[in-house]
Amino acid sequence: MIRAVTSEDLRDCARLFVRVFSEWPYEESWSVIQAHHYLNRFWKFDPEHCLLALDKDDVIGAMFGYCYP
């Protein structure tokens, strides 16, 4: 299922972000707190362009974006 991200989803999205971006080709080092702050900025700026992909109750993907006016 795909739905809009809510503030309650940000922690799970941050955990996914940390896991994905720690792997090749990115190999970045993020803490969950840093990732949460980063994603929260996108979500606060343009929440309707932030989507969550779920498999049952498991977060399997997310998209955080924004549109210029």
Q: Overall 3D geometry?
A: globular
Q: Which segments are poorly predicted (pLDDT under 50) over 5 or more consecutive residues?
A: none
Helix content: 25-40%
Order of helices and strands: EHHEE
Task: Tell me about this structure.
This protein is an alpha+beta fold and 69 residues long. It has one domain (2-64). Helices cover 38% and strands 23% of the residues. It contains 2 helices and 3 strands. It has helices at residues 10-21, 32-45; strands spanning 2-4, 50-55, 58-64. Strands 1-2-3 form a 3-stranded antiparallel beta sheet. Strand 2 and strand 3 (58-64) form a beta hairpin. Helix 1 crosses helix 2 (32-45). It is globular and about 30 Å long. The model has no long low-confidence stretch (mean pLDDT 96).
Summarize the model shown.
The chain is of the alpha+beta class. It has helices at 10-21, 32-45; strands spanning 2-4, 50-55, 58-64.
Q: Which secondary structure elements does this structure contain, and how are they paired or packed?
A:
Elements: E1 2-4, H1 10-21, H2 32-45, E2 50-55, E3 58-64
Antiparallel strand pairs: 1-2, 2-3
Helix pairs in contact: 1-2
Describe the structure using short key phrases.
69 residues, alpha+beta, 2 helices
